[in-house]
């Protein structure tokens, strides 16, 4: 009965192209700014029903991004959270190459040569601002398209994101361009814009929801550089139950994933109380 109802609900969303059976991971597409963007969703898989999680991987990564995002995407549904992973904006080309303005917000296709946790070359303040605005416009439009799907899973909602994408999301929430989730989870957050990266932690003071800041030893140098500052800023948000967790293991090691899952599970349920 539940599968039949889910199928009926998905059938009422003409913007989506269905690719797999209900009850399994569903690979879908949404249209964002005239382009087809991939969304990978996993429905509830257990008796617990807490809500939904949006997952935004590193810049340039597709919805099926590997690593921690993939692990959480598969594991959280078992613990009562449906997951929706969205392809991230493209990783910008180095500044010695010409990139069309309309291309900077395109979803990643997984073919970029640079890694999503590597800082890019210097740009002017104006160029950085224009780039962030284009990427944030993409993220806002994509999340807006996915929101109707989340309504199938009533309860709270959690946003999990990493690296440069996390910095973009933090600014969007701080500037009220994005609705605050019940819990924001950022993994090794940083901005490749040096000036903005130095101010990144100040966003935490503008949040009204709890934040879980996960820092791993193998995070980008720009993320490690602000770790202490972010920790101090989060310590001021005790009433909101925000915290920073410094991981003992690199996120290149799958053994670190279970620790992240346990922390996120605990904080996500507490955020709904």
From TrEMBL:
Keywords: Hydrolase, Signal. One of its GO terms (molecular function) is hydrolase activity. It holds the Pfam family DUF3530. It comes from the Bacteria. This is Alpha/beta hydrolase family protein. Residues 1-17 form the signal peptide. InterPro entries: DUF3530. It comes from Shewanella electrica.
């Amino acid at each position: 009965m539940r599968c039949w109802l889910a199928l009926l609900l998905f059938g009422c969303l003409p913007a989506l192209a269905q690719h797999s059976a209900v009850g399994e991971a569903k690979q879908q597409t949404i249209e964002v700014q005239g382009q087809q963007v991939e969304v990978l969703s996993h429905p509830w898989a257990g008796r617990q029903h807490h809500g939904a999680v949006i997952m935004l991987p590193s810049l340039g990564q597709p919805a099926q991004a590997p690593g921690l995002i993939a692990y959480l995407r598969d594991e959280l549904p078992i613990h009562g959270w449906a997951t929706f992973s969205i392809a991230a904006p493209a990783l910008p080309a180095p500044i010695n190459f010409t990139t069309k303005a309309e291309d900077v917000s395109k979803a990643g296709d997984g073919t970029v040569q640079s890694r999503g946790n590597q800082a890019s070359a210097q740009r002017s303040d104006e160029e950085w601002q224009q780039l962030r605005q284009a990427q944030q416009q993409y993220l806002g439009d994509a999340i807006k398209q996915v929101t109707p799907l989340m309504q199938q899973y009533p309860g709270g909602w959690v946003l999990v994101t990493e690296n440069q994408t996390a910095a973009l999301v933090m600014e969007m929430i701080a500037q009220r361009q994005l609705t605050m989730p019940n819990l924001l989870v950022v993994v090794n957050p940083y901005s490749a814009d040096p000036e903005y990266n130095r101010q990144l932690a100040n966003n935490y003071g503008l949040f009204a929801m709890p934040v879980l800041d996960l820092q791993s030893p193998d995070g980008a140098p720009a993320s490690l550089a602000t770790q202490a500052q972010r920790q101090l800023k989060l310590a001021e948000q005790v009433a909101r139950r925000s915290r920073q967790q410094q991981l003992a293991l690199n996120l290149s090691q799958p053994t670190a994933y279970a620790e992240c899952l346990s922390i996120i599970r605990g904080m996500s349920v507490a955020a709904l109380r």
